[in-house]
Amino acid sequence: MYCFCALSLTAWLAVGSGTPDAGALDLRPQERRLVLDLAEQALKAKGLAKGKLVLTNLEVLRDARDAESPRNALVIHYRYEGNLAILTSVNIGRRKVTKIETEAHFPTSLAPEELTRAIELAHASADVRKALSRHGPPEKFEVDALMSHTVDESSPIYQHRALRLFFRQGRTYLLYGPVVEVDLTTETVRVYAGGDEGHK
Prior knowledge:
By secondary structure, the chain is of the alpha+beta class.
């Protein structure tokens, strides 16, 4: 069984870290750099910054429990090793990391560089080019992607970072085209005929 989802953590973050304040949600460039530097240093100190690590989200929230320094940033990384989400809370005014949490198999949003890499892998795949040959080269199409998850332990993408790619021109999606699955964990591409999951 597969689950395809476009992910937003905003609601979860609001519950876990306070409520958003429209006047304080923006980070100045120097604040953003500070937050990311503090998070990176904290992950290194905890031994969490190993292997392939991508920044997937950065949210700014107001925590009413700290009246003197209420602005907090929640920095979310995805680590390929261990299929791990890492959530780092940073108090912006105090320039301090206040909490680090890890959650294996926790769904995180896709980083822009991950989508770029998935498209590169698809374009380089002889199987994709062959499957699309009657429609044109892969570069002819714009590509959309959805995160792909499965609870099937026999699936090659079980607990992997995987995407399904959809090809379109303008607003028109390619009908009757192949199903293209990119496994970013192993950097492999699988092409199935429409509806064929291949591994079942």
